[in-house]
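For consistency, the fold was encoded as tokens, as this record shows:
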Amino acid sequence: MDRLHLLLVGVDGLRLDLATRARAPHLHALLARGAETRMTMPVPTISGPGWATLLTGASHEEHGVVDNRFVGSRLASFPDLLSRAVFADPSRTTFAAAAWPPLVDPAGVGPIIHTRDEQRRAERHRVVVRDGETYGYRTTDAEIADFAVAGLHAAGPDVSFVYFSGADEAAHVYGAVSRPYVEAVGRIDVHLGRLLAVVDRRAREGEPWLVAVTTDHGHLDGGGHGGGEPEVVASFVARAAWNTALDEWPAEMPPTELTPRLLAALARG
């Protein structure tokens, strides 16, 4: 049997209480297949600090990211999930796709996912970047989904991170308790369903897979985040496995534990 493949899907600004079964059937199918762990995100509940913590396991104080400008960042000293997976096993391949450039763009601020230029040139670390801030996340999320489906189907990378931000964009403009937010959640769930279909196909050939979905923060009902309100700090990890057993995780954990626990699953897989 092949070694474990990991897909981590990041959905920016997702409120799980508003992503109901009717609105997000693929996410709830994942939850029904697997397990859920709750997390409380530290303040400031902003994408830069949040994703830096989730993807490295370092605290705000350690990685030094305090906003979305990344001034004073110490990310060079805190490798991300994908990089650490490769450091543990250099034969692994990785894939990262996002329309928020600071996550993955080698030419931008950050990036949180280390560039690993040698491996990119050797096509062992593939990076797909779009600019959702300029062109809108409804369009760029769809492009990211297309590239991710193709990349997972063709290559089945050992460790992947795929990110969507349309829900966060909608909440900022219209509020979280709004039809546009619900519709954005539904579009992202369709993207998730396409990714899960690829995982299903590859798993039917015997590959073991672990899929996890998480978010960096929630939103106020009227939109906005950054503070410590319960609906804003609430995060979660939904995870499910194919052709392997899920590790036992607690019902609640700090966000600094996400990357170490995923790495531990890879090591045992």
